[in-house]
Amino acid sequence: MALIHLPDRAFITLEGEDAEAFLQNLITTNIDGLAPGEAWPGALLTPQGKIMFDFLISRGPAGFLIETHAGDQAALAKRLMLYKLRAKVTIGTPAHDGVTAIVGEDTIPDSAVADRRFSLSDVALFRLPDRLDGAADDPETYTALRIEAGAAEMHADFAAEDAFPHDVLFDRNGGLNFRKGCYVGQEVVSRMQHRGTARRRLVRLEASEPFNTDQGTVEAGGKYAGSLGSVSGHAAMAIVRIDRIAAAAGDVSVGGLPVSVTPYAWSGVSLEPTGAEPE
Predict the structure, then answer these.
(1) What CA–CA distances, in Å, run from 127 to 66, 111, 219, 244, 255?
(2) DSSP element (H, E) containing 22
(3) pLDDT at 276 > cutoff 50
(4) What is the pLDDT of residue 180?
(5) How far is CA 205 from the centre of its chain?
(6) Which of 13, 39, 43, 190 gives 58 a disulfide partner, CB atoms 3.0 to 4.6 angstroms apart?
(7) Are the CB atoms for 211 and 236 separated by under 8 Å?
(8) Closest C-alpha to 128, from 28, 60, 30
(9) Which of 214, 243, 241, 218 lies closest to 228, judged by CA?
(10) d(CA 91, CA 80)
(11) pLDDT (0 to 100) of residue 275
(12) Backbone angles phi, psi at 226, to 5 degrees
């Protein structure tokens, strides 16, 4: 079992008799399906359907716990307050020393939650507020695990208000639900789902030598296909135009370095050519 301290993570609590309904009508995750002991991905969208804030959400002792990037904590809490109106919800920003990621299944504390994003790739990773004794500051290992699992995170893999939930596979990993009621941005992402117009997808890249993060443009057949996200040695992930990747028939590179492109097995994304490339 490995313990990794993630100092750039912070929390928001939501408590009160209206907390569940408030979140269900606001964020992309289906709160009704959230079981105790699990952390599911989710987002608060712009009205245009872009990800304004991404996070993990779990049930806490008296409500819900949102884990997000530490730099987004204050802005996300403020945004939630704007939507609160008369709802009986108390929104808090508790102080924690980041998060401890627990890799493996030996001696897991009762209060830790399983990160669903990793379990889809059969990686056992649990999360717990604060720094556990023995937790090391090892962002490189955590990045490598995220690349292996396909767990994209804002700031590392995409910018705020620059990606749709489909781009980061939220429609496949539980971060996006199409059967619950309306929420902010729901009309746009539902239209993308039903029309099948999501062409940008998160994939894994692999090269014969380490990636140069200063050369982050993914090209397919000489055309722009996306931007490099998180990097770990010879492996990386990126949000790419899958139609252009498919049409390039293996001619894909990053900064002139040839790369192989592999969809995440759990995502169901295919790189089979589908005909003429849409503009």
Answers:
(1) 12, 9, 36, 37, 35
(2) helix 19-24
(3) no
(4) 87
(5) 17
(6) 39
(7) yes
(8) 60
(9) 218
(10) 8
(11) 53
(12) 160, -175
Which run of H or of E encompasses 217?
A: strand 217-220
Report the pLDDT value the prediction gives residue 213, as an integer from 0 to 100. 82
pTM to 2 decimal places:
0.94
On the 0-12 / 13-18 / 19+ scale of CB atoms within 10 A, 96 is middle
Q: Spelled out in words, what is the top-level CATH class assigned to the domain 2-151?
A: alpha beta
Between CA 54 and CA 251 the distance in angstroms is: 32
- Rounded CA gap, 276 and 279, in Å? 9
Residue count (the chain): 279
Residue with tokens 């490995």: 2
Q: Which two tokens stand for residue 20?
A: 């569940």
Domain boundaries of the chain, sorted by first residue: 2-151, 199-267
CATH code at 199-267? 2.40.30.110
**Using DSSP, how many helices (H) and how many strands (E) does the chain show?**
7, 16
Q: Which residue has the tokens 């939650």?
A: 113
